[in-house]
Amino acid sequence: MYPITLNIENRKCIIIGGGKIAYFKAGPLLEAGAEVTVVSPEICEGFQKLQEEGKIHVLLKEVEETDYKDAFLIIAATNSSEIHEQVYKNTSHSQLVNVISNQELGNFHIPATLNRGKLTISVSTNGASPKLAKKIRNDLQEVYDESYEEYLEFLFEVRMHIKKSSLSKDEKSQLLKDSIEDIYKYSLKERYRFLARLLPVETE
């Protein structure tokens, strides 16, 4: 497997299945800005709420090839292995397909993911043990807590200032290295001081 991060903003993503497992797959897609369509004769309360809020499209029907023919990403999450096999058989090599009941049928796995603002940490066991991947992800939540959201915003702002500056490559590299010292993670005051150092060099 080759791990990557995808930009799926405004991309058509299809979830086949209307149960709770399928519902749990929708959240990360919506957070990434995907255009999500759910295809299933019935949908759970979670999907009903998302539909009422206008966050997803729903097709209350049995899935057909035309429903996902032009989709960028497809998640097959029904309780029917026959449907999963048929879906994968009908997809093209250019489509991304995840089959929850049979990792060998799809061409990508969905890792257990921890998000802290701009920070994303994904854990995968390549289908060997999704439960272990989730356990490791949960353990990491204690190490990388909510404070990393603001910390990453600071690092992003630092990087933008440095990119605009006329400093040498070595000077920029050193500043970027300095910015990830622990003092800036724990002290808002020190972050302001560091950013103040960058403002003069940006305008030189």
Automatic annotation (TrEMBL):
Signal peptide: none annotated. It catalyses: precorrin-2 + NAD(+) = sirohydrochlorin + NADH + 2 H(+). Gene3D superfamilies: NAD(P)-binding Rossmann-like Domain, SirC, precorrin-2 dehydrogenase, C-terminal helical domain-like. Its EC number is 1.3.1.76. NCBIfam families: cysG_Nterm, PRK06718.1. Pathway: Porphyrin-containing compound metabolism; siroheme biosynthesis; sirohydrochlorin from precorrin-2: step 1/1. Keywords: NAD, Oxidoreductase, Porphyrin biosynthesis. This is precorrin-2 dehydrogenase. It is an enzyme of class 1 (oxidoreductase). Residues 116-141 form the Siroheme synthase central domain. Transmembrane segments: none annotated. It comes from Peribacillus butanolivorans.
